[in-house]
Structures are given as C-alpha cells and as structure tokens.
Design brief:
- The protein contains 16 helices and 24 strands.
- It is an alpha/beta fold.
- It folds into 2 domains: about 10-100 and about 225-480, Aldolase class I (TIM Barrel); about 110-215, CBS-domain (Roll), CATH 3.10.580.10.
- The two termini are about 45 Å apart.
- The structure holds inosinic acid.
- Inosinic acid binds next to strand 20 and helix 13.
Length: about 500
C-alpha cells in the first residue's frame, strides 16, 4: 500500500508567530541576519555565508548581472539563470565579478575628434555625464582625457566644437593605478576635491571610475557581500545535462557558488552531477542541490555531497507543477520536515547543511516564518522580478506599470532541462505560466523595508539571530475565520497609501 503522510500539507499563510519575551537589548538594530550559505563542520565557520537570508531565483526573468550586483550590495546572492548558452551565462558571471564594489566601468566613451553635439547625444543615451575620452573612442582605447558637464556650456559654445578642445586632458587628471584599493581611491578623491577618479592600467587604458557619490553609497551598505578581492559574490544555476562543459566555464568566470536547478532533486541525475563536481574539483567548488520536500530527499542529497539543499515543489507563484503532475508539498510542511532532517543529520555527523526554502513567499512575514520553520535562507522569484534591477521588461498594462514574469517551465523560457527525468523524450507539457507582476521600484528600498519587518518580528519573538529564531520561535496554526480577523475588517479603509495592502 502507498505510504501516507499523517500531516496535511500546509502553506505559510496557515501560521502565525506567537511573541516571546522582548528585553531592552532586543531591538531591530541589534538583530543579526547573517546565515550560512554552504555546509560546515561543527565548531567551524562556513566557507560562504549571507548577510541577509535572501537569494534570488535561478530564472530568466529574475537573476541577471544588475540584479546580482544590487543584491550582493544588500548582503544576499543571485543565482544567474542557466537557461541560456554557457558562453552568455559565463559572460554574465564575469561581468558581476568585474564590478568591484565602488568601481564603475565606463559605458560612455568618446573620441577626441567628436563634437559637443556628440557629447550631448551620448549623455542622453547613457544618462551619464562623465565620459572617458579615448584615442579610438572605444572602451579599450588609451585614455586621453575626460569630459564632465563642468567642461562645457551648451548656451555659450558652438555645437561643432571638438571634444579635444574642451575636455580635461590626461596630463591634468589625477588618476589611480589598477591595483588601487577603494579606500586609497577615496583618499585621492578627498585630498584633491574630485568628483571622480579614473583608474587606469599600465597601458593607460581606463579600467574604472570611482565616484565620490558611490563611495558614500558603499559606506551606506555595510552588509555588502564581497569576496577577498572586494568583488561581489555571485552564484549560477547549472543543469544535469551539460555540467561537464558549463561548470568549468562558470568556474573560470569566477563564480562563487553553483546550484543544480531542478524542480525535483531526488534523482540519480543530481547525484551524478554532484559526484562529477567532487571528482573534478574536490570541495573547492561549492554547489547546492534540490529541490526536495521530505527527509528522504534531504538525506539523499546530503549523502551525495550537496553544500546546501533547496526545499519546495509546486509552491512558486508561476508554478503549475501540482496541477500538471500532482506532485509537491505545502511549503511550510516541506520546510519543517527538511529542517528536522537537517538537524538530525547534524547531530549524527557534525555536518550542518543549510537549507533554502524556495518559492511561495508572498508576504514579507512569510520569510520570518520560513526561518522560524528552520530554513537558513529563502529563494524568491516573484519578489525580485518586481524590481528595476531584474532583467525582465517593464510594460504598461491598463495604465499600470508591470514587470513581465515567466516560469522556467513555461513555453517562454523553455528550460526543459530543469524538469529532466532522463531518457531522450522532450517535455510535452508546461509546468509554468507567463505573467505580470506590479512594478515596485528599486531593490534597495524594498529589501530594506522587508528586512525591517523581519527584524521587528524577530524582536517581538525575543530573538536576535536566525539560529535563535529557529530554536525558540513559537508558531500557531490559524483557522480560516481568524485569517479574516487578521486583516482590516468591518471598517471602510480610508488611507490606502499607508501599506494598507501589505507585501
Ligand atoms: P516565487 O518566488 O513564488 O515566484 O517562486 C520562485 C520559484 O519557483 C523558483 O525559485 C523555482 O524554484 C520555481 N519555478 C520557477 N519557474 C517555475 C516553473 O515554470 N514551474 C514551476 N516552478 C518554477
């Protein structure tokens, strides 16, 4: 006879947290959201950690280069989507790794023979007023000067004036050498009262600008997640088909962590992929696996060598796996069972394997609940797809700004490898939809607000750290009628603007 799970399959919306005692030390500014990203032995530190418990989903509509830099700036990690060619995925990773925190590559390059009219047009195109004047007008040319809006006055100058006549020439510039650190660059900016410092290599080619305003923003992001060379940490998705070519290319591009991207991780294909990575790289290359929803799946991937394990089948906002195939499990129940399996494994082996609750986060408080249920961090798709930094299109639908958001198993993404169950047969049905989500602005402002809510709730629960919350949170099931009681009810709401529809 088939095995039946005794517990019903539950979602986060079916639970609430019950407050614990809050002492005077337990304030949001004292909350520490640091959490392990990869496995570690008892008493040791993980090789990689997150400063906030959030990673962005391995999806075309979510995780590109801009998202990766913006999220690392806040302390999280993006996994660049794998449903693209190996070359373009590796190029995205390389681009993130080339974006040193506080150092900005120039997308505005102009020749000394160009005119003021060209300068105005380039400024309109890029939105940037600082331009590198290079011998050939290209990014790889020798730097001969820079142009900023202080160098010209449109009302008083002829539009045909050549750039070389009004630029600040190289010999008048203060420049940094390629190996300069951000704080050394900042010292030069302050000492010489500059707005920007060009950084050049030994052939006088521009490598980056350091802007005064960016240094200030770097100071504002104390959670930035950087490697030992001060480059942003970035992840990438892989599949169980072309890993022998894809993984070396990503490693060469400088990726920090990989994740096998699959809707169902309890399979020989994942074990084979993990084995090949271990045989080829030992423990040097960090790789997560998943997704699983029970103890057996967790054990399997733990023993196969996964560095972290992703939990969740069928809970994603764009996901129709449960309807199409009848497999899956409520996200809260799955997270809880896998977290218990993780703790048992830790007791037995002394190895802690972080788990990631993936998909189905709708309200900010679901993040706190996922952590209370034992997740070490959460993966979000819909949440990040709403932001400016996501690589998806911004469109107007019935007068409202929307971002396009489509599943990896939709006909649009055609990421059939994610649903690979071996054999030669191609997928003949979809497991995801193509949709819109309301545009929500920049990642920085939204993540700040979300984490402020998480920290406040943790204080209500009397917890200052994620391990503390995992151990001490009190959770209660809610009845359907008490859910109605939880929102504004029996009143006519007047002020819609003040978060009346909370995230
Ligand atoms: P969301 O945060 O609820 O939007 O869920 C995002 C998660 O849904 C991803 O991290 C994937 O695990 C999963 N996912 C992405 N695309 C699909 C799909 O087409 N079908 C099913 N699940 C998907």
């Amino acid at each position: 006879m088939a095995k039946f799970c005794k517990e019903p399959s539950r979602t986060f919306s079916e639970y609430l947290l019950i407050p614990g005692y809050t002492d005077e030390n337990c304030t949001p500014d004292n909350v520490n959201l640091r959490t392990p990203l990869v496995k570690f032995k008892k008493g040791e530190e993980p090789a990689l950690h997150l400063n906030i418990p959030m990673v962005s989903a391995i999806m075309q509509a979510v995780s590109g280069e801009e998202m990766a830099c913006a999220l690392a700036r806040e302390g999280g990690v993006s996994f660049i989507y794998g449903s693209q060619s190996i070359e373009s995925q590796a190029a995205m990773v390389a681009k993130v790794k080339a974006t040193k925190s506080g150092f900005t590559g120039s997308d505005s390059n102009i020749s000394p023979e160009a005119t003021l009219k060209d300068v105005i047009e380039l400024k309109k195109k890029t939105g940037h007023s600082t331009m590198a004047v290079t011998e050939n007008g290209e990014a790889d040319g020798k730097l001969v000067g820079i142009v900023t809006s202080r160098d010209y006055r449109v009302s008083r100058m002829d539009l045909d004036t050549k750039v070389k006549e009004f630029m600040t020439p190289f010999d008048k510039l203060i420049v940094g050498k390629e190996d300069i650190t951000l704080s050394e660059a900042n010292d030069l900016i302050w000492d010489h009262k500059l707005n920007q410092l060009p950084v050049v290599d030994d052939k006088q080619r521009l490598k980056a600008f350091v802007f005064r305003k960016d240094y200030a923003s770097h100071k504002e992001n104390p959670n930035e997640l950087l490697d030992d060379q001060k480059r942003y940490i970035v992840g990438a998705g892989i599949n169980t088909r072309d890993y022998q070519e894809r993984v070396p290319a990503l490693v060469k591009a400088g990726v920090d962590v990989l994740c096998i991207d699959s809707s169902e991780g309890y399979s020989c294909w994942q074990a084979k992929t993990l084995q090949w990575i271990r045989d080829t790289y030992g423990d040097r290359v960090k790789v997560g696996a998943g997704n699983v929803v029970d103890e057996e799946g967790f054990r399997f991937l733990a023993e196969a060598g996964a560095d972290f394990i992703k939990v969740g089948i069928g809970g994603g906002s764009i996901c129709i796996t449960r309807e199409q195939k009848g497999i899956g499990r409520g996200q809260a129940t799955a997270t809880l069972e896998v977290a218990q399996a993780r703790d048992k494994y830790f007791e037995e082996t002394g190895v802690y394997i972080p788990i990631c609750s993936d998909g189905g986060i709708v309200h900010d408080y679901h993040i706190t609940l996922a952590l209370a249920f034992g997740a070490d961090f959460v993966m979000l798709g819909r949440y990040f797809a709403r932001f400016k930094e996501a690589p998806n299109n911004l469109v107007s639908v019935n007068g409202n700004y929307m971002k396009e958001y489509w599943g990896e198993g939709s006909a649009r993404a055609r990421n059939w490898q994610r649903y690979d169950v071996g054999g030669e047969g191609k997928m003949s049905f979809v497991e995801g939809v193509d949709s819109y989500v309301p545009y929500a602005g920049t990642l920085h402002e939204n993540v700040g607000l979300t984490l402020s809510k998480v920290s406040h709730t943790m204080c209500n629960c009397g917890c200052l750290t994620i391990p503390d919350l995992q151990k001490n949170a009190k959770v209660t099931l809610v009845s359907s009628t008490s859910i109605v009681e939880g929102g504004a009810h029996d009143v006519v709401v007047r002020d819609e603007s003040f978060d009346a529809k909370p995230q």
